[in-house]
Specification:
- With about 775 residues, this protein is α/β, with parallel strands linked by helices.
- It is built from 29 helices and 17 strands.
- The chain has a ten-stranded mixed sheet. Strands 1-2-4-3 form a four-stranded antiparallel sheet. Strands 15-17-16 form a three-stranded antiparallel sheet.
- α2 crosses α7, α3 packs parallel to α5 and α7 packs across α9.
- The radius of gyration is 41 Å and the shape is elongated.
């Protein structure tokens, strides 16, 4: 088990242990003084009788003892005026009884039965009464502000310096790894947040290492707080992986992914919410976070993991490959998985509703899905806006369908992922290099607890803070350490590969939805893809193809116009300078775009003496998405026509009286337009384009433009317009089949990965 294999967690540093031990011994020590006083008085009585117990000295001794007894009794009553009445009476009566006995013993000696009996019975009774008071006072704190337990004693030494005068602590649990206590705060004066801010001063006053004290609020009482004292140095050493916690059980049972600073297991129930894993390079977020979480998930009978990593290929998730139901390392594969998962979610929610479930439950019949995206910032930079929206919808909807998303990245600010993604995530934060990054990696209540992952940087890989719906109140601000899988990377990778092989995805029984998504990774360019190519005529090299800039602009204009509309609506700002900068186009093209947007009632006319135009559609307008989609499909006929119309030849002139000449037969034929071809069905039209791409790739000519002569011939054969071919190319770019390079308004596509075309199953023809 983890506790046997983990290093022994020390409660606090050695000096602190000595103080705690001394405090514990003092519990017994406070019971001794009454008995010591009893013995001392007996000895003093015997000595007094031997010296002054005979006449005539005994007379004066009796008078002196009587006067002394009176003075001592009165003094005791006077100096105990601040004690409660019972304590005042108890102390005064004890002084009076002891003085009377001493006077009697001086006169008669200890041999008298009354004197010895009074010493044995009366003295023992008084000593026991003081012992009873001491025990009760140290247990309940009644009438004594210094608690009787070790934790309370330590806290009382530090509370005034920490600004917590009036607070009390009592231990509620003591183990070999920690001391847990409950803190009672002065009602109406202090709250748990005040204690959190004073934690470092408490540690200083208790002479503990930094990080020893963790304070959490009591959800039932605002004037109470939970306090845990443990050794922060214990988890700064690697902790070996102890094996799966519940192999073969349901994913509904908690995952054991590490140890907390206080020695408790990190038992994380990861169902019904998403998780963001953040940390700097070398902090252990991948090997410590992803490996331990997914390593546990693949051991459960009703869970499937779909992983994406287009940044590091097999380097991180490769050893887990056999336990994953799908692992994508290319943009094309990632886009296909996102689209397929998005399409399956409504079917899963419908299935759950038909079978009487509002949410996924263990035993409901559906396999629980985990979509893991390693280094999501790289994927977001590659995704098109359409697929980014699909991923956002997956985050919003997959929980109802029985699934969660795990996102891993180095800095979760708005430049890396949309803020709506971050807002829906539970948080697991490893070491950071910049204190400004903390707010992106931890939860709101962790920020209030002043957690400091930036203090670790990459010096303690695997240390983290975790906060989610299943994390206990006492532990969300407590550091943890994830398990290590080996002493070096080679040993760790071998151990993980062996573990994944013991729980292969192929060995699980899954629902039909999961089976449809399950697919082993395939090479980016397979021989099978080339063998399916339809023979096509030789294609000339792209650089040799003459380009008509106006014609190319007309072909690209629908896409540019849609991009411009999306940009001005999202930013609520429209100016030619902004479009030129954001879209990287010529100044003239930006003016054309704004004129077209004005014709479409998306922007208004420019203000006097200004290039800025008012935006007529609000960013949250429900019609905005439909408007952008319509522009992407149809463009603007006026601008496309103007772009294709040559300037008139100034050498050709005509007057109103000049006769109109009939065109020659040759000129008439040139003016005839081809009859529109019959439009192919969408699937056949796309198949023809895919065949052309395969043939071009096979012939080593991967680059082309939208106005390529052969591509134009293919488009005309399908009976579709320029916006259609542009939409197909954009879709293939989003899926990773093509990449696009922009130079002003010109775009050049390059074939990069044809594998998605081998399993085309979307019917996405337009």
């Amino acid at each position: 088990m983890a506790r046997k294999s983990a290093p022994s967690l020390q409660l606090v540093q050695e000096a602190t242990m000595d103080r705690l031990a001394a405090s514990a011994v003092s519990k017994v020590g406070v019971l001794v003084p009454p008995w010591a006083v009893l013995g001392a008085e007996a000895a003093a009585g015997a000595i007094s009788h031997a010296v002054w117990g005979q006449a005539p000295a005994v007379t004066w001794a009796a008078v002196g003892c009587t006067l002394g007894s009176t003075v001592l009794t009165g003094l005791t009553w006077a100096i105990t005026h601040q004690r409660r009445l019972i304590g005042r009476l108890h102390a005064t009566a004890t002084t009076a009884a002891a003085s009377v006995w001493f006077t009697t013993a001086t006169i008669t000696g200890l041999g008298a039965p009354v004197v010895s009996g009074a010493l044995f019975f009366g003295g023992a009774t008084l000593a026991l009464s003081w012992n009873i008071r001491t025990v009760i006072r140290n247990t309940t704190g009644d009438g004594d502000e210094h608690g009787g337990d070790a934790l309370g004693s330590l806290f009382n030494r530090a509370k005034e310096q920490a600004g917590l005068k009036g607070a009390r602590v009592r231990a509620v649990e003591v183990t070999a790894h920690k001391v847990k206590g409950q803190m009672q705060l002065p009602p109406g004066e202090k709250t748990a947040e005040d204690v959190v801010k004073a934690t470092d001063r408490i540690e200083s006053g208790m002479r503990l290492p930094p990080g020893s004290v963790v304070v959490a609020r009591d959800d039932d009482r605002a004037d109470r707080a939970h306090i845990t004292v443990s050794d922060p140095r214990a988890i700064r050493r690697p902790i070996p992986w102890p094996g799966p916690s519940h192999p073969g059980a349901s994913i509904d049972k908690p995952l054991r992914i590490g140890l907390y600073q206080d020695g408790d297991d990190v038992a994380y129930r990861f169902v019904g919410h998403h998780l963001q894993i953040m940390g700097m390079t070398g902090s252990g977020k991948s090997i410590g976070g992803a490996w331990n979480i997914i390593g546990e998930i693949i051991t459960r009978c009703d869970a499937a993991v779909f992983s994406i990593d287009i940044s590091k290929d097999d380097q991180t998730m490769g050893p887990l490959r056999e336990g994953l139901h799908r692992f994508e390392t290319s943009k094309a594969g990632a886009v296909e998985l996102i689209r397929a998962m998005h399409a399956a979610i409504p079917e899963r929610t419908k299935w759950l509703a038909e079978h009487g479930y509002s949410n996924w439950e263990p035993g409901c019949g559906l396999t629980y899905w985990y979509l893991h995206i390693e280094e999501i910032a790289k994927l977001m930079s590659e995704l098109g806006s359409q697929d980014e929206d699909l991923l956002g919808e997956i985050l919003k909807e997959i929980r109802s369908a029985g699934g969660s998303v795990i996102l891993s990245l180095q800095r979760a600010d708005y430049t890396q992922i949309p803020t709506i993604f971050r807002s829906q995530m539970a948080k697991m934060c490893f070491g950071l290099s910049d204190p400004d990054d903390v707010k992106y990696g931890v939860s709101s209540r962790q920020r209030k607890a002043d957690v400091e992952p930036h203090e670790w940087e990459d010096r303690h890989p695997g240390m983290a803070y975790l906060d989610g719906s299943s994390v206990r109140t006492t532990h969300y601000a407590m550091p943890l350490r994830t398990f290590t899988w080996g002493q070096n990377s080679r040993e760790a990778r071998a151990a993980m590969a062996t573990h994944a092989a013991a729980y292969p995805a192929a060995g699980k029984q899954v629902d039909p939805f999961t089976a449809a998504l399950t697919r082993p990774a395939v090479p980016a360019a397979s021989d099978g893809a080339r063998s399916m190519a339809i023979p096509m005529p030789p294609v000339p090299a792209a650089p040799g193809i003459p380009r008509d800039p106006d014609d190319e602009f007309a072909a690209d204009f629908a896409e540019l116009l849609a991009d411009a509309a999306h940009l001005v609506i999202a930013t609520q700002h429209a100016s030619p300078a902004m479009l030129q900068r954001k879209l990287r186009i010529a100044w003239e093209d930006s003016l054309r775009l704004l004129e077209a947007l004005e014709r479409k009632d998306i922007v208004g006319p420019p203000a006097p003496d200004s290039d800025n135009r008012p935006v007529l559609l609000a960013a949250g307008d429900t019609l905005a998405a439909d408007v952008v989609a319509a522009l992407r499909a149809t463009g603007d006929v006026v601008t496309q026509t103007l772009a294709r119309t040559d300037d008139p030849d100034p050498s050709i002139t005509a007057g109103h009286a000049d006769p109109v000449r009939e065109p020659s037969a040759q000129e008439a034929d040139a003016l005839q337009a081809d009859a529109p071809a019959d439009t192919m069905n969408p699937a056949q039209a796309r198949a023809l384009v895919y065949a052309w791409l395969r043939h071009r790739h096979q012939n080593g000519k991967p680059s082309f433009t939208a106005t390529d002569e052969d591509l134009t011939a293919v488009r005309r054969k399908t009976g579709n317009s320029r916006p259609w071919i542009y939409k197909v190319l954009t879709d293939l770019t989003d899926r990773g089949v093509l990449t696009v390079a922009k130079t002003g308004s010109s775009r050049t596509w390059t074939i990069t990965d044809l594998s998605p075309l081998d399993h085309e199953d979307y019917g996405r023809a337009a």
